[in-house]
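Quick question, first post here. What does this chain look like in 3D?
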Amino acid sequence: MAYHSLAFVLLSQPTWEFHKAPKMPDAIWMAIMGAVGYKTLDGSLSKWVITAICLINGAQFFLAPDSAVDMYEMKGVSKLGKAMIGMLGAQFLSVGTYLAALLKDKSQSEAFAYAMAMYAATGAKFALMEADDLNVPKAGPLVWAAISLGLAYKALN
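> Answer (accepted):
Ran it through. Tokens below.
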């Protein structure tokens, strides 16, 4: 997972450049993710480290997207852009939830169900608490939440 995070940071560079964010934080994160990936795969670092990184970063981006924008010194991020940063946090929360479930000896189906439940909760939160303020139709995120709940249910049954 750490290598996936490294790749994400690398592939998302056009967004950071568009918002005139400094490159050093991303370079540091890529180095950290490379080291975490390497040390996790060789068995010298607990798999809980990348799980915690996903959950902590996910919580920050999801619950406080303004703090992420400020921390990364991004310029000119719109309200919709901040909401999408929050949904990026939702993605990390879902991945962290999946990894944590696997580490707690849950089956892949159970871990998938928990991740889908997290997607449903975060999608519903966006629809019910943010969509109106952004003039975004609620139908899309609510349908996504319903599909996620259906997938969670199916994975458990």
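The chain has one domain: 2-156.
The chain is about 80% helix and 0% strand.
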